[in-house]
Amino acid sequence: MSRDQILAAIQISLNANRPQLLAEAARVTHEPPPFVLPAQDDLAGQFVAEVQKLEGKAYRVATAEEALAIIEQLIIETQARQVIGWDVDQIELPGLAALLAAHGVTPAIADIRGEARQARLQELEPIPICLSGVELAIAESGTLLLRHGPGRPRLASLLSPCHIAIVFERQLVRGLGEALTILLKRYGEEIFGPTSNLTFITGPSRTADIEMTLSLGIHGPPQLHVILVAEG
Amino acid sequence: MTQTIAFYDRVDQALHDTSLQTALNRATTRFIGNRASAIGALCEADRLRDQARAIRAYALAHLDELLPQLAANVEARGGHVCWASDGEEARRYIIELARARGVRSIVKSKSMASEEIHLNEALEHAGFEVVETDLGEYIIQLAGETPSHIIAPAIHKTREQVSALFEQHLGMPPTTEVPPMIRTARRALRQRFLRADMGISGVNFGVADSGAIVIVENEGNARLSTTVPRIHVAIMGIERIVARLADLGVMLQVLARSATGQKMSVYTSLISGPARPGEADGPEEFHLVLLDNGRSRMLGGQYAEALLCIRCGACLNACPVYQAIGGHAYGGVYSGPIGAILTPLLQPDLPDAYLLPQASSLCGACQEVCPVRIAIPDMLLRHRADAVQAGKAHPLEKAAIRGYTLTMTHPAIYRASGKAARLFSRILARKGRFRRLPPPLHLWTKQRDFPAPPPKTFRELWAEHQKRRHQNEV
C-alpha cells in the first residue's frame, strides 16, 4: 500500500537527516509574533488606510444608522432586488433586516446543496450584492477574517461584483498572530467543527497577469466596501 | 510535456526573444522592488525568516508523524485521502474518482504539483474538459503553452497576444485595453465554474493539527474552484506541511511579502474537509491527494533542505540568469534557482535536467531573498559534482579542467600560458575585450564579450614592485 511505502521511505530518510532538521527547528521559537509592523496610534485609522491602499472602499462610521445609510446607497446604485448574504442576525447590525425590507430586497437563498446545485448557482449569479459580517479584522494588513459556516455562506463574499462587509471596532486586532491566537482561544479544537472554511480577505479580487497591469475583479468581487462601525 | 530542443537552444531562443526580454524585465524588476520594501517594512524581518525556516524544518523532521495526523484529521472531518507514490498513482486516483462520480467538466486553480505530474493532459486524454482558471494559466492554456513564472505564469505574453487569443477563443472584439479583456475572461470563466462538477486545487500548506489545507491567491479562482463544484480535489506535495495552525502566523507573513510584496494575498482560504451538514455551500466531497513523487527519498539525501521551499518565487526574480532567460528555458515545471535544484530530482526524465545547475553564476542572490534561507548555491554545486560523478561532464569540460590543473600545478606552464594569452589578446582583442573567441570558447562570446587579459601579468607587476621597493631601500 502506498501509504505504508511512503511512510517507510520517509522514516528511512529521517534516520539520516532528522538530527540536522531538529537542530534547525530548535534554533528559534515557533510562536508567531502578534504583529509584524511598527505600532500606530489609531488601530481603526490604520485599518481603514490599509483597505483603501488595496483599492477597497472603507467607511468609518459612529453608529449603525450611518452604516445603514451607506448600505442603502449601494442598494440604490446597484438596483439590487436580492442580496447574497449571511443570515441578518449573524451580521449583528441593528435595523438591517428592516432596511432590506423597506427597499424590497430579499435575501437570496444561497443554499446550493443537492441536485439543483447548478441551476441554483445560475439563479444566484446575477445578484449584484454580497453582504457579510466578519469574525475579526486585522489592522496591519487591512484583512477581513470570515469564519464561514451555518448562516454564513462562502458565496456571500465571493459571487457578486460588490461585497459589503460590516466590521465593528471591537473586532479589530493589530496583527495576524493576534488574530490566530484569539481564534484558537475562542474555538479551540472545534475551530473546524461546524465549519469547513475560514477565509482571510485582503482587498478586492485582483490580477496582474496581463503585462503586470493591475486589474480588479477578475473572479471575486471587484468592489469591496468595508464599513467600520464604532458602536455595537 | 517532452522537451524537443536542448537546453542551450532554449536559452538561445529566450535571449533573442525581445518581447520576452521586455516582459521579464518588467516583472522581475517590479517583484524585486515590491518584495524589498515589504520585507524592509517588517520590525524583525530576519527573525521572522529564521522562524519560518525553523517551522518548516520541524515539519520535515516530523513528517512521518505529521502526514498521518493530517490525513486522520481530514478523514475525521469527512474527507478522503489518497497517498500517491508517484504521478501515475495520483492521476489514476483522480481519473477514477471523476469517472465514478459522472464528472464531465473540471475547473482547476493553480497547482505546481498537478503540473509536475502532467495532470491536465491525463484528464483531457481521459475525456474530461479541464479549464485552468487563474487568468495567467488560462491564457497559456488557450495558447497551448506552459507557465514561464511561478507567480505570473503568462508574463511572456503581450496584451496584443492575449487580445488575439480572446478574440479567437472567446469572440472578444479586438482591443489593446486590459479592462475589457478582464471582463471577457471573468464572464467566460464564471460560466465554467458554475457548470463544473469538480474543482482541482493545489495546496500552499497542509496544517496537520487542524486537518486543514491553506490556499493563497489573489484572483478568487481558487475560492470558486473549492466552493462551487460538488467535488473538491486538492493536490499537495507531501513536504508542504506545517504542524500547527499557529505556524501560519509566521508562514503567511513571509509568503506573500516574498512572492509579490503584498502584506497578505487577497484570499487566504483554510479548508478542512467537505461542507458540514449545516453549511449551505462548499463541496459535498473533499479529497486530498498526498503526492510523494521522489520527495521521501529526497528527504534523506543532500538536497533535503530544498524541501523547505514554500514556492514564493522570490529566488526566480532575484536570479540574474532567470532575469535573462525566463522560465521556459529551464524546461521543467519548476524554474529559476530552486527549479535548477528540484527539476533534476523531481523530473529526472527530462534529458538535460542535469545541465540546469550550470545555469547559475552562484552569486547567492537567491539565498539572500529566500524566506526560509535555503542554501541554494551550495546545492547547485552539489548537483554539478553529482553530474560529474555520473559521467555527464562534457569531454571538453573534462579536458579544460585537466589543462587547468596542469597549469596551476606547474609554474613554468603557468608562466607560458600567461604569455600566450597576452599574445593572443594582442592579435584578437579590441579595446580590452574579445568580441569573438575561437571554438570551443566561441559559446562564451556568443552573447557577451570576454575581457582581455591586462598587458602585464600579476607576476610581472609583482617583480617590478619588488624591484622598486628594493631600489627605494637602497
Summarize, please.
The complex is a heterodimer of chains A (232) and B (474). Chain A has 232 residues and is α/β, with parallel strands linked by helices. Helix content of chain A is 35%, strand content 21%.
State the CATH class of the domain at 46-296 in chain B: Alpha Beta
CATH homology-level superfamily of the domain at 46-296 in chain B: NagB/RpiA/CoA transferase-like
Biggest pleated sheet of chain A: 6 strands, parallel
Give me the number of helical elements of chain B.
22
- Give the tally of structural domains of chain A: 1
Largest interface: A-B, 90 and 105 residues
Q: Indicate the proportion of strand residues of chain B.
A: 5-15%
The strand count of chain A comes to 12
Q: What is the helix tally of chain A?
A: 7
- According to CATH, the homologous superfamily of chain A is NagB/RpiA/CoA transferase-like
CATH topology of chain A: Rossmann fold
List keywords for this structure.
heterodimer, B: 474 residues, alpha/beta, six-stranded parallel β-sheet
Notes on the structure:
- The complex is a heterodimer of chains A (232) and B (474).
- By secondary structure, chain A is α/β, with parallel strands linked by helices.
- Chain A has one domain (33-229): Rossmann fold.
- Chain A is built from 7 helices and 12 strands.
- Chain A has helices at residues 2-25, 43-53, 64-78, 88-91, 96-102, 117-124, 176-187; strands at residues 57-61, 82-85, 106-107, 129-132, 136-138, 143-147, 162-168, 172-173, 197-201, 206-207, 215-216, 223-229.
- In chain A, the strands form 3 sheets. In chain A, strands 1-12-7-4-2-3 form a 6-stranded parallel β-sheet, sandwiched between helices. A 4-stranded mixed β-sheet of chain A has the order 8-5-6-9. In chain A, strands 10-11 form a two-stranded antiparallel sheet.
- In chain A, a hairpin with a 4-residue loop joins β5 (136-138) and β6.
- The longest helix of chain A has 24 residues, at 2-25.
- The radius of gyration of chain A is 21 Å and the shape is globular.
- The termini of chain A are far apart.
- Chain B has 474 residues and is an alpha/beta fold.
- Among the domains of chain B are: 46-296, 3-Layer(aba) Sandwich (Rossmann fold); 396-473, no CATH class.
- Chain B is 52% helix and 11% strand.
- Chain B has a 6-stranded parallel β-sheet, with helices on both faces. In chain B, strands 8-5-6-9 form a 4-stranded mixed β-sheet. Chain B has a two-stranded antiparallel sheet with strand order 11-12.
- The chains are: A alpha/beta (232), B alpha/beta (474).
- β9 of chain A pairs antiparallel with β9 of chain B, so a sheet runs across the interface.
